[in-house]
């Protein structure tokens, strides 16, 4: 049984809703069941789901052990950008979890892949067949998937050797004055909140993100970010670290949020490039930002033009 401890830094939000925001793997119904069954305490006392949190409250969650997940194939109408007998490139929509986990047993990318094809690599076990790398639930965009273990090993080696191309479009809070930059800052678990990552020297791994300005608005910037490494929440953490958090980010964004149409962080994996694990051919794929991203960008241009 894993135990997580959080110190609340915002006031008035319902306990069940707030807990859901602490992990992409925790659904509202899951946190409500944990609260009802006594797995959640506030200041060392059991509470109700509708308890309104206060700044400084200490919330502890004892996540109960779960049985090994049995994956059900589901027809999810995946956006397959490319496929052959070795690899698949898929354009994941925002809101879709990559693989099953407690609170998200169905509706994930893996559920859809299991319906789409049965020949997926088994290196990551039964819960993550074919999954070479992940993007967050509310991040949209391109992922590469391996159909067999040889392809999986090759793609993982390319990630480790930093030879893949992974470019993201993002909308960030603040007008970045310079045209481009590099954030070279190690990332590890936040000791104050184990569900968050942070720039730290303690138990951290090297992390490098390059960024370039696409367009500026008054108080917002449209940027292109390129990953040199691939740490958990890397772009979200690095952009916050330099003072330009991603618009709509529930974990790392500012508390005061403008009313944009996008749900979750405005982050999209636009470009993915790698060497084909069998043919040796260099392959590069592009996926346009989704409609909600476009709508938010258009709204920014209308309401916050750079004068």
From TrEMBL:
Pfam families (UniProt xref): PseudoU_synth_2, S4
EC number: 5.4.99.-
A single GO molecular function term of this UniProt record: RNA binding
SUPFAM superfamilies documented for this protein: Alpha-L RNA-binding motif, Pseudouridine synthase
List of catalytic residues: 136
Keyword Isomerase: yes
BP GO annotations: enzyme-directed rRNA pseudouridine synthesis
Protein origin, superkingdom: Bacteria
InterPro entries: PsdUridine_synth_cat_dom_sf, PsdUridine_synth_RluA-like_CS, PsdUridine_synth_RluC/D, PsdUridine_synth_RsuA/RluA, RluA_PseudoU_synthase, S4_RNA-bd, S4_RNA-bd_sf
Record's function text: Responsible for synthesis of pseudouridine from uracil.
UniProt similarity note: Belongs to the pseudouridine synthase RluA family.
Protein name (record): Pseudouridine synthase
Organism of derivation: Bacillus selenitireducens (strain ATCC 700615 / DSM 15326 / MLS10)
């Amino acid at each position: 049984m894993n135990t997580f401890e959080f110190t609340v830094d915002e006031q008035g939000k319902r306990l069940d809703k707030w807990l859901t925001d602490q992990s992409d793997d925790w659904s509202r119904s899951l946190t409500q069941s944990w609260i009802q069954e006594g797995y959640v305490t506030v200041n060392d006392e059991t509470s109700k789901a509708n308890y309104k949190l206060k700044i400084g409250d200490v919330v502890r969650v004892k996540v109960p052990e779960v049985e090994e997940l049995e994956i059900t194939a589901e027809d999810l109408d995946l956006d397959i950008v490319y496929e052959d007998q070795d690899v698949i490139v898929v354009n994941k929509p925002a809101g879709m979890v990559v693989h099953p986990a407690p609170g998200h047993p169905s509706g994930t990318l893996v559920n859809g892949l299991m319906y789409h094809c049965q020949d997926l690599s088994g290196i990551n076990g039964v819960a993550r067949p074919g999954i070479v790398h992940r993007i967050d639930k509310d991040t949209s965009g391109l992922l590469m998937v391996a159909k067999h273990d040889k392809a999986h090993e090759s793609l993982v080696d390319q990630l480790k050797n930093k030879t893949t191309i992974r470019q993201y479009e993002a909308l960030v809070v603040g007008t970045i004055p310079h045209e481009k930059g590099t954030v070279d800052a190690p990332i590890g678990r936040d000791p104050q909140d184990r569900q968050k990552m942070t720039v730290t020297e303690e138990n951290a791994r090297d992390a490098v993100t390059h960024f370039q300005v696409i367009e500026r608005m008054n108080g917002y910037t449209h940027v292109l970010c390129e990953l040199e490494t691939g740490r958990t929440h890397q772009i979200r953490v690095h952009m916050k670290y330099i003072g330009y958090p991603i618009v709509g980010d529930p974990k790392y964004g500012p508390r005061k949020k403008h009313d944009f149409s996008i749900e979750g962080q405005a982050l999209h994996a636009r470009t993915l490039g790698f060497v084909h694990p069998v043919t040796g051919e260099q392959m590069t794929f592009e996926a346009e930002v989704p409609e909600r991203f476009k709508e938010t960008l258009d709204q920014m241009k209308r309401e916050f033009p750079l004068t």
